[in-house]
Amino acid sequence: MEEARQYMDDALQRLEDSYGRLRASLLRERNSAQLAAFLPLEILVEILSYGGIQTTLLATKVCHRWRLAALNHAPIWSRINMQGKLSQSLLQVQLERAGTYPLDVAFNIVNTRTTVENMGLPNNLLDILMKASSISNLSTRTIPAKWTGPLPLLESLHLVVDPMTPVEDYDLRPPNLRHLSIDFREKDLVFHTMVLRNLRTLHIRSIQDPAYKVLQMVLTIKNLTELVLEKCQSGEDMAIEPTESTEPTEPPAQTANLKSLQLLYLKDAAPLFHSHFLKSDIISPSTNLRIEPYPSQDFQSTTSYSAIWFDFAQEYTLLQHGENCSYTRLALEETLPYDTVYDMAHQYSFANVTSLCWIGANMDNPPFQWLPALRSLTFEYHPPAVGSARQSLGDVVGAYLATSCPQLEYLGISIRRPKTTTAILQRDDAELELPGFLETWTDFYGEIFSKVELYDEYRPQRWTELVETLKMLTWDFEIKAQSLMESFIFPVFPETRQFVLKEEEGPAPFRGFAQTFW
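RESULT FIELD:
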């Protein structure tokens, strides 16, 4: 019986070998008639480059032209992602197809209570490292002790320090490194000056050195464009009580600066970093700055701001500054956000702010007295429930706004519907308070207001009979059919460099193509 079964299996395999090629040939001819098969090669390889290795393998089965395009484009095969299912045979295929093209390697990293190590390492590890231009998720445990490979192609490195690896075993000095990310895991690791001096990007996480030592190191990098300091709070930093006059224990040389810095991100960093970067002239006004959480100490920023966006739903604020419209992004406090706003008004220069956008919450006691140059005001009004603090549209658009902001030209109001439909709301007289503000403006300045845009999601019908009156009180009045925030373009804060490769699933194969067998 076993012999007969084997005979039948052999016969089926011969049939597959005979007719499989014919089937593949027919499908190849069918696919070659599709319009997508005639895409220019440069466009085709650009499309394929957005997919992962599995997408590339599928592309080789579409038609002969797609197969050649995928197989002959080395950059597609150069992304070695060991975080997923990567067999030794597939790795070998990728290395062969990549040829001499520099590799982009992402290791699979596993954290335990005592170690940080890379799993599933290939047999030819050192050869791969020598051919790599970008390496992420590399543990110091993976690097052979005392290994001093030159790594001439390496430009980007994301390194995680293994607590069990002796510091003296690490001695890498890639001469052309431009982008470096290190997770110190609160362990010591010294980099040579030769490695640091050519950096353009530096991310530091969980370093145990005090802030002044980190500053001294960073200030030696002359052409740094991006700096990220995350969880950089040593025991020595925590022992220093943050005050307005706090200075580094050993301050850096006064001549050193980071004027080339385009992006600075301080996340859970010591207060000393906040005060030093914000008070001194180390960074330029065109540097994009992001701080999380909101700085706790009282300090005075010398930067002059031109526009402000408050988003209480996302709990952040953006402040625009510099000739190139750079931004400072600050995380808002989860509790007492308004206190944060008023602290900012005292600590930052708002005298030149011309635009203010406020969403996600009502403007309680708005800080208009610090905004004498304000020209544009866009905000949301949420009718409050009975039992909460009394708030009305007139708290914002009233005599206080008219007298504090004489240059105001634009008013954008979105009245939002309550999220809870069963809530009993306070009396809302927006249809009386807006005309009252416009009349106050006319009486005060002797001319009508420039422009008002209004969206009322709560009670839109109440404005029907007031449209003509409001048009007489403004040069331009318009009731919008959708929220102003839907058409409002919020500025996007620049993203930091992503060192860790994230393999994303591409779209499903085009249904007009049938995969062939090769």
